[in-house]
Amino acid sequence: MSNRVFHAVAGTISVLWLLPIVAVLITAVRSFDDIAANGLASLPRSFTLAGFADAWTNGGAGAMWNSVLVTVPTVFLSLALSSAAAYALSRFEIPGRRSVILLMLAGNLLPPQILLVPVSKLTELLGIYDTLIALIVVQVGFGLGFYTFVLQGFMRAMPNEVQEAATIDGAGPVQIFWRIVLPMTRPALAALAALAFTWIFNDLLWAITVLRSSSVMPVTPALLALQGQYVSNWNVIAAGSVIAAIPTVVVFLRFQRHFISGLAVGAVK
Amino acid sequence: MDRRHFLRVTAAAGAGLLVSGTASCATSASSGPVTQTAGTVSIQSNLSAPAAKAAIEALVKAFNDRKGSQASVNTVASETFRTQLPSYLTSANPPDLYTWYPGALLTGYEQKGLLLDVSDVWQTMGDYPQAFKTLSGKVFVPTTYYWWGFFYRKSNFARWGVTPPKTWTEFVELCKTLQGKGVIPLGMGAGSDSPWTASSWFDYFNIRVNGAPFHRELLAGKQRFDDPKVKAIFTPWREVLPFTDPNGTAIGFQEATTALLQGRTGMLLTGAFFADAAPKDALDDIDFFRFPIIDPKVPLAEEGPTDGFFASSKSPHVKELKEFLTFAATAEGQEIYIRNSSGTILPTHPNAKDSGTPLVQKGRQHLKEAAEITQFFNRDSSDALQPTADAR
Asked: In the predicted model, is pLDDT for residue A252 greater than 90?
């Protein structure tokens, strides 16, 4: 009996949870005239894939490529830097390392909104405003603190004996990092990679802060640009959102296993 | 771990940073930092709606085909554009031209010295009515404008057996009749991201009761909002409030147009861009009438928001951008723009042809009859009023 109640409740919640996604999918295959005449909430009376083609040709293709150009180097770079930092902070007696970690954590608590103007001006001074490099630098900078914090928690949990054994076998710190610590950190790295990919791919704020040319805009501002000043083609926007969601969904499906185990291990060190 | 080891690790990390740093640079360099090509006028556009985007691209293409100076257009979301405009203008290397509208905001930028004086371009615009000149000052070149009114479906009005009203009494009667037929007389659409639709009601009541000069002064901050004259406009407003869509502040502008098209509401006070939100097969069925006269003694005023271009004072392409502005101000340029747009806009050049549909011709006449043209609540508002006026 209680089992049936559980299924009923859980089923209802799942349906409610999926409803917006279904609504977007349905809107994506309707025609603009159908939406304009019958409203967004009505049952679909048309079926067309023109919205997808529209979204793809209306800057969607270029924006997706830009997103990849930003996201992949950023994920790679931030994980490379933060795992090195985490290795140092977790495995070596560095004076003031607690303060360093706390400082990194504190940086995460700062709302990014208050840094918009300084960051925009800074990229201009550096001469990288309106380039993808600016976006990569900013994303790496803002992600680093959190990734380092998680990774050092994970690395601290590694048994000391492993490192001692490696040292006895003649491995230097770099070798230990490369051949022992990094391979053992893989679950956490995979989980963070999936998370970072989603965050960076879905970011809008930094993109519109350091970029202004539509040719370099990643996919989120490009989606926003599908909205008109007064009138928006909801079918095209919905189709564009579906396209934009595909990479993150793929990454998550691919890393799902690591994601759950990796985060759990990082949490209880 | 001793000190030497630690240093070695640090050095390794540093080298790693360097390597990955150059790697990332190489990747992004292929996509290319966007620098201005010498001599090309860059136009930052907020015309992100598909029809408007196509129109400005066609205008730029026609300009480039003349084999004179060259221009390139960069379209960003209107919302992004609105919030980023100050940083565009104050950046070291700003875009040359911007799509925008005249008003207090522009005057503010002008006073800060951010805008280029384009009086030279106005020398070529001798035929333009004085009203546009006064509105634009020295820094703005208007290209198109549009009108506001009560839009309705002809077939629905015929079905309900009603005709467009002329006076306020007739208007209230019409509302009563429609309500008697189970139709919500007045749509609103001030919900979600379009609370500005309600500003048009304030504008119209104020220009009908107190006249356009008072309205402009009020929004410019030279009159008080608690003036008895302002309070007076709420008397007629209260009269029609019971006929207004009870969901008026819940649903947005686009849903409100759907409600109108389906005949759930009778009419909607809105701008000519309304036609962009309607399906193509309904376009011939759409008509509008003037916001009814409340006090015949007040000179007739209408809302006629104007759009166009302004230039950054930091632009290194002054000659080229003026060439573009001059082209955009010609009848030829505006006809190209309108032909490629959705068509429900009017050219500012007095001799330029509009799209010629009955709706647009009526709109042109509608504004021609008005003694005074106001822009819109947010466009006429002073700096201090902007946060309220820009609420979305």
From this structure: no
Q: Are residues B206 and B230 in contact, defined by beta-carbon separation less than 8 angstroms?
A: yes
Q: Which sequence spans correspond to the domains of chain B?
A: 40-145+306-354, 148-303
CATH architecture of B148-303: 3-Layer(aba) Sandwich (3.40)
In what order do the strands lie in the sheet containing B184-187?
A: B184-187, B265-271, B148-153, B286-289
Helices B50-65 + B318-329 axis angle, to 10: 110
CB contact under 8 A, B277 and A87: no
Rounded to the nearest 10 degrees, what angle do helices A132-156 and A186-202 cross at?
A: 150
Residues in chain A with CB shorter than 8 Å from the CB of B4 are: none
In the numeric block, the tokens 């490629």 are attached to: B340
Residue in chain A nearest B80 by alpha carbon: A208
Name the CATH architecture for the domain at A49-267.
Orthogonal Bundle (1.10)
State whether A225 and B76 contact (CB < 8 Å): yes
Angle at B152 between CA B150 and CA B153, to 5 degrees: 165
Phi and psi, residue B98, nearest 5°: -135, 140
Residue with tokens 């001059």: B326
Q: Is the dihedral of CA B273, B278, B284, B290 positive or negative?
A: negative
* Residue A227 pLDDT: 82
Residues contacting B27, CB < 8 A, separation 6+ = A69, A72, A73
CB-count burial class (<10 Å; 0-12, 13-18, 19+) for B367: middle
CA separation for the pair B165, B168 (Å, rounded): 8
pLDDT at B348 over 90: yes
Evaluate whether ipTM surpasses 0.85: no
Angle at which helix A132-156 crosses helix A234-267, to 10 degrees, equals: 30
β pairing state of B40-45 and B97-100: parallel
pLDDT at B21: 38
**Which of A40, A133, A221 minimises the CB distance to B80?**
A221
Please say whether the beta carbons of B164 and B267 come within 8 A.
no
Domain boundaries, chain A: 49-267
Per CB-CB distance under 8 Å, the chain B contacts of A212 are 44, 74, 76, 84, 88, 95
| Model pLDDT for residues B92-139, shown as the tens digit of each residue | 889 999 999 988 788 889 999 999 999 999 999 988 988 888 888 899
Instruction: Name B184's bridge partners.
Output: B265
Q: Predicted confidence band at B140 (pLDDT cuts at 50, 70, 90)?
A: very high
CATH of B40-145+306-354, one of 3.60.20.10, 3.40.190.10, 3.90.1150.10, 3.30.470.20: 3.40.190.10
Q: For an interface test with B, which of A148, A164, A214 has the most B Cβ atoms less than 10 Å from its Cβ?
A: A214
Cα distances from A173 to residues A84, A85, A179, B11, B214, in angstroms, run: 11, 13, 10, 11, 78
User: Which pLDDT score is estimated for B269?
Assistant: 95
> Position of tokens 């859980």?
A10
Domains B40-145+306-354 and B148-303 equal at CATH topology level: yes
